[in-house]
Amino acid sequence: MIAKMRKFRQYLQHMAKMDEINSRILRELSRDGRLTNLELAERVGLSPSACLRRVQELERSGVIKGYRAVVDAARLGIGFVAYVTVGLNTHTKAAQEAFERAVSRAPQVTECHNITGTVEYLLRVEAEDLAAYKHWHTDVLGVLPQVRSITTFVVMGSPKDNRA
To answer: Which domains does the chain show, CATH number per domain?
Structure first.
């Protein structure tokens, strides 16, 4: 009971720290993770030292997990993007772990989500072109012993994409 109360107090403390200024800091860093502390402080209305303390606390507490570069897929030769649902033939932990290990080794898979519904996984797959995707679909994903079903949804355009 005491441990539960301690966790609840920690949760409340964390929520109290997530005020409007921290929300603005996160919004600005999500838009541009390369902002200098001075630029960020100006945008959120803090002194540079106060802003830096808040960013460091957000990092230390795990709210900010890291920073990434947004790359132009076309310039990297990626001309085909699809979301792929995968249903497994057995619903065991071992089957899920084996599937996840196999997918983690596939450079074409940029996201893997275990989801609810009629299938177990949703993947974001990026390939050079349709032929490269077909090869991966047939010769890599399609031969995994855990896979029961594969459905591909080809991305035709992305009018909004906030992934970083």
So the answer is: 2-60 (1.10.10.10), 73-154 (3.30.70.920)
